[in-house]
Each structure stands twice: as structure tokens, then as C-alpha cells.
Design goal:
The protein has 2 domains: 2-111, D-amino Acid Aminotransferase, Chain A, domain 1 (2-Layer Sandwich), CATH 3.30.470.30; 115-169, no CATH class. The chain is 21% helix and 26% strand. It contains 4 helices and 10 strands, in the order E-E-H-E-H-E-E-H-E-H-E-E-E-E. The longest helix is centred in the middle third of the chain and has 11 residues, at 88-98.
Length: 169
């Protein structure tokens, strides 16, 4: 999901271009509380369970839209500057600075630096999570998921865990 703030207006866009600004009010409120009046954030809409793990079924049931938060993992623009050409490592620093007050409704997705892919992938699968996204720290922004960045291991489908995909760099 893309969160775009321009002055007093916040819009939420899905990857397919649908405007879901009215669907997730907590994200909109959090973006409006930020001290910066212009930014574009890339992230994932989530509902966290009691255990702190994203509850995919709760999100898609639409019964708890007011609880949906943004798991922010990238920043594309800030205060009029296009950051997409910067390496991911610098964009992560900008994102952390933008959200350093930890506003309710938007939080920075944790990230790990270094060569931990295989171990992190196994841990993701062992926790029965849907998967993870891994990107190179030295690369500019690329919209969407790329074959070299997606590792999907678990996803619960009708209560069953199944291996879906594994595309690791």
C-alpha cells in the first residue's frame, strides 16, 4: 500500500491503484499527525494479533478495518525530494527518521542488514508466517515484488501451512 501525504490530504493506494483512504482511518490519522506534510511511504496494511503477528484473515474479513495499521518498509518521497533513486539503506534511514515518534497506526517494519537470508527464511517458515521480502541495500526503489526479492514459505490456506514459493537472491 502506498501512503501519500500532500499537505492536509492523505491518500492510501493499493498496488492496483484503488484509493482505500476511507477504508483504513487509523493509517490516515497517523499520517496526518506526522510533522512532515509531504511524504510517500510504501508498506503493507496489517492487523496485528494478540501475539503481535499479522493476521491475514482478519485483514481480509473487513470486520476490523478501523484496526488496520501500516507496516512501513520504504519511503519514496519526503518534503518534495524524490528518494526512489537512493539505495535502500539510505531510504530506510529516512523512513526511520520520518516515523521516529512511532505514531500509532504506522510503524517501521524491522529490517536486518547483512547476509542472514537463509536463517531468516527458516525462522519465518518455522513461525508459520506467510513469507518475507528481501532486498539489496545498495539498490534503488523498484515498485512491486521482483523475482529476486520474494521468499514466501508458509501462508495459511484454510488452516494448512504449505510451501508456496521460494525465490531468494
Amino acid at each position: 500500500m502506498i501512503v501519500q501525504r500532500e499537505g492536509n490530504r492523505v491518500r492510501l493506494f493499493t498496488r492496483n491503484g484503488h484509493d482505500w483512504s476511507s477504508r483504513y482511518p487509523w493509517i490516515v490519522e497517523a499520517a496526518m499527525k506526522n510533522r512532515h506534510s509531504q511524504f510517500v511511504i510504501d508498506g503493507e496494511a496489517v492487523i496485528l494479533g494478540i501475539d503481535g503477528i499479522a493476521d491475514f484473515n482478519a485483514l481480509h474479513s473487513r470486520r476490523r478495518d478501523e484496526e488496520v495499521q501500516l507496516y512501513a518498509f520504504d519511503i519514496l518521497a519526503l518534503d518534495g525530494a524524490d528518494l526512489r533513486g537512493l539505495p535502500l539503506s539510505l531510504r530506510k534511514t529516512n523512513l526511520a527518521q520520518l516515523l521516529r515518534g512511532r505514531p500509532d497506526g504506522i510503524f517501521v517494519a524491522p529490517f536486518e542488514r547483512g547476509e542472514i537470508g537463509p536463517d531468516l527464511f527458516r525462522a519465518t517458515c518455522n513461525m508459520d508466517l506467510e513469507g518475507m521480502v528481501s532486498k539489496r541495500a545498495d539498490r534503488p526503489y523498484g515498485a512491486g515484488l521482483h523475482a529476486s526479492s520474494l521468499a514466501s514459505c508458509g501462508g495459511s490456506v484454510d488452516g494448512r501451512s504449505q510451501l508456496q514459493k521460494k525465490r531468494c537472491v
